[in-house]
Write a structure and sequence with these properties.
Order of helices and strands: HHHEEH
Strand content: under 5%
Number of helices: 4
Number of strands: 2
Low-confidence stretches: none
Mean pLDDT: 95
Shape: globular
CATH superfamily: dinb family like domain
Largest sheet: 2 strands, antiparallel
Number of domains: 1
Distance between the termini: 37 Å
Strand order of the largest sheet: 1-2
Length: 175
């Protein structure tokens, strides 16, 4: 079983690194600090809010991942969806990168044996593998939102992050 667990963890690290790369490459296309704070419609979140929420989630879930509840007492989830004062690109990226660093350090330290351990999120017990799958899905959801919003805000200057429509043959991403 260790071989499967090791393969799963290796793929999970790749998956998280890929999500972070997609988001970072999209975010790099924003022209101004103000672009991070644009809300495209009622009930929508800005890119800055989605970044703040995802980074807060990663920080809370993965700090002391195996030993404490994934919903940390110092997390203010509702506050992640508020931003009274717009933050600069640098401030947002500092918060963003810290969340990713905490998550990746925790994930990269896991062993195949850890996958069968039980952890808690909001008091609910679950296997580590279940918590990782839940987090990967949550992360993908919000990275998709970020990419969509950046594409919307930068069109027609958007640079595709994956294969553009009708360009499958011979396509390679820009580096």
């Amino acid at each position: 079983m260790a071989d499967v667990g090791d393969a799963y963890l290796k793929d999970l690290v790749y998956t998280y690194r890929n999500y972070q790369s997609l988001a970072d490459r999209a975010l790099s296309q924003l022209r101004t600090d103000e672009d991070f704070h644009v809300v495209i419609g009622p009930g929508s979140n800005s890119i800055a809010i989605v970044m703040k929420h995802l980074a807060g989630n990663l920080r809370s879930r993965f700090r002391d991942f195996l030993t404490s509840d994934g919903e940390k007492p110092d997390r203010n989830r509702d506050g992640e969806f508020e931003m009274a004062t717009p933050l600069s690109r640098e401030e947002l990226l500092e918060w963003w990168n810290e969340g990713w660093t905490i998550a990746m350090n925790a994930i990269e330290s896991l062993t195949a044996a850890d996958l069968e351990r039980t952890i808690h999120i909001r008091g609910k017990g679950m296997l580590v593998v279940e918590a990782l799958n839940r987090s990967a899905t949550h992360t993908a959801y919000h990275v998709g939102q970020i990419v969509f919003l950046v594409r919307h805000l930068t069109w027609p200057d958007w640079t595709p992050l994956t294969i553009p429509k009708g360009k499958s043959e011979g396509w390679a991403p820009k580096k």
